Amino acid sequence: MAYMSQEGYDKLVAELQRLESVERPKASAAIAEARDKGDLSENSEYDAAKEAQAHLEDKINQLKMTISEAKIVDTSRLSTDSVQILTKVEMTNLNTNTKMSYTIVSENEADLRAGKISIKTPIAQGLLGKKVGDEVEVTIPRGTIKLRIENISIA
User: Fold this and answer.
1) Other CB atoms closer than 10 Å to residue 104's CB: what's the count?
2) What is the Rg, in whole angstroms, of the alpha carbon atoms belonging to the chain?
3) Averaged pLDDT for residues 134-138
4) Which strand (E) or helix (H) includes residue 149?
5) Reported confidence tier of residue 79, pLDDT bands at 50, 70, 90
6) Mean pLDDT of all residues in 55-59
7) What Å distances lie between residue 9 and 26, 118, 119, CA to CA?
8) pLDDT digits (tens, 9 = 90+) for 12-46
9) What is the reported pTM?
10) In 10 A of CB 126, how many CB atoms?
11) Distance CA 97, CA 86 (A)
């Protein structure tokens, strides 16, 4: 089960609709065009089109599974008492004294440029359940960082 925001769920549904209504017909047309070029045993264009279609169908099936397993989180019922999914956490990196702010989201909604990190990342895992004022040590690929939670809000 994947917990996510309504916005994240809506984006997945829109992507699925685009793949099924736009990309799937394009893939079928590419296969038909390649098939019309003759001998399929030596037609690399046909093989490439079939492979592209298989990748597209895999992506469609993965999206369908994610959507079917999605559990939309009602943000009005979230608390800012502790860090949880869909909360925005403002913190200080005590090693470098720099301020950081991340919203913890599902894997499908993660977007580092937008300040959204997956709940499965080491930082998110280290923060879950912690409260304002708590200091945590988190092991990341580059070593260990020490963070102090300054504020928790609803994203």
Assistant:
1) 25
2) 22
3) 95
4) strand 143-154
5) confident
6) 96
7) 25, 15, 16
8) 999 999 999 999 999 999 988 888 877 767 778 88
9) 0.73
10) 18
11) 25
